[in-house]
Amino acid sequence: MSGTFSTYQGKLLRDAAAGHPPPCPCDGTELEDAAAKVLAPGPFGYVAGGAGSGDTLRANRAAFARYRLVPRMLRKTQPELRTSLLGKEMAAPVLLAPIGVQSIVHPEGELAVARAAAETGVTMIVASPASYSLEEVAAANGDGDRWYQLYQPDDPEVCLSILDRAKRAGFTALVVTVDTPRFGWRPSDLDQGFAPTLRGIGAATAFSDPVFRARLAQPPEQDLDAAVRLWQQMFTGTGRSWDELAFLRANWAGPLLVKGILHADDARAARDAGADGVVVSNHGGRQIDGALAALDALPAVAKAVGDELAVLLDSGVRTGSDVLKALALGADAVAVGRPYLYGLALNGQSGVGHVIRSVLADAEVTLGLLGAETVLDLGERHLHKIGG
Ligand SMILES: Cc1cc2nc3c(=O)[nH]c(=O)nc-3n(C[C@H](O)[C@H](O)[C@H](O)COP(=O)(O)O)c2cc1C
Ligand SMILES: O=C(O)C(=O)c1ccccc1
């Protein structure tokens, strides 16, 4: 059994035996503790923290633990992660979830992540509030496949300008996030007074936008506070409705996905608004304390729209087995968030590359051990639900 990604297992073993341990842990669930040792409390709390008491953060992991994988033996497998998503071939059904303000954990931030994504062949979803402009991240990503995540600005001209820039910079899909019209109640940030956005971190794309700049009395370089205020006003706000998606649908020709769906009816609303896919997600437990686990929301969404839309899942994916469990429950692909950011914090581009390769190798090895050939073979028959 030596598929595309599982060769990394052999390399790690040979390297470690020769005295070269991996750049960061191979167990995706250990990365957080390792990152806690290198990050200052403010940035660490910002990344690792959840909303409120952390209930949903824990629920995301607990949901994966409630499903056990059921393997079948002696099936002559050649496991293959390759799949197609939204009409395009993909090396694996695993993407990098959009994470903003990455320079708070490493000076190269999104640039290092973009290089690691290109080098490993996974699709990166670049966040609206990236620390570098979308063009800078695109240049670092080169020939890689990249999607753009949008917090939809309420100024249509600014929105059009950003969509145009994203298209010209080679972003192939648009992911509009609907679960963060404002930040959730995040005790770690509140206790520590940690708010990178107030310092303009994450505003690189807006601040380099000619239409946005034209709205300011003074450029951001001269009056940062006023620029940050306008940026926040424009890109967030709870007064949004499903109607606003029509504008994006009319002005973005490529695939459009809606991120932050936890209810089958919202998945249907996304479909009716012309979306091509949804991301089932509770934003990694950062928005609503007590919201249901993303994995527990997945089956109903997959049942409602799975035949018509691409269904992705994020929130709590840490290991290869987690990837396979989500696929068995009806996801077409998953996105991984914090783990790659911890890799970035621990070891820059090579840390990110290690985290990606580890998840993919683990998923490929485990797929074969389950007795499945491809990710399309996975289904409920591979799952045993504890207590259900
Ligand atoms: C530090 C941090 C910043 C994030 N920023 C964004 C963002 O700008 N846009 C967005 O759609 N999601 C953002 N997310 C949410 C992720 O895309 C994703 O939903 C979540 O991290 C997945 O859960 P996981 O971290 O458990 O894998 C952020 C998450 C973290 C941890
Ligand atoms: O922190 C987040 O989860 C997030 O989505 C975000 C939103 C705006 C700016 C930076 C991060």
Automatic annotation (TrEMBL):
Lineage: Bacteria, Bacillati, Actinomycetota, Actinomycetes, Pseudonocardiales
Domain of life where this protein originates: Bacteria
Family from the record: Belongs to the FMN-dependent alpha-hydroxy acid dehydrogenase family.
Full protein name: Alpha-hydroxy-acid oxidizing protein
Gene3D superfamilies registered for this protein in UniProt: Aldolase class I
Keyword annotations from UniProtKB, A to Z: Oxidoreductase
Limits of the FMN hydroxy acid dehydrogenase domain: 20-388
SUPFAM superfamilies: FMN-linked oxidoreductases
Cofactor field: FMN
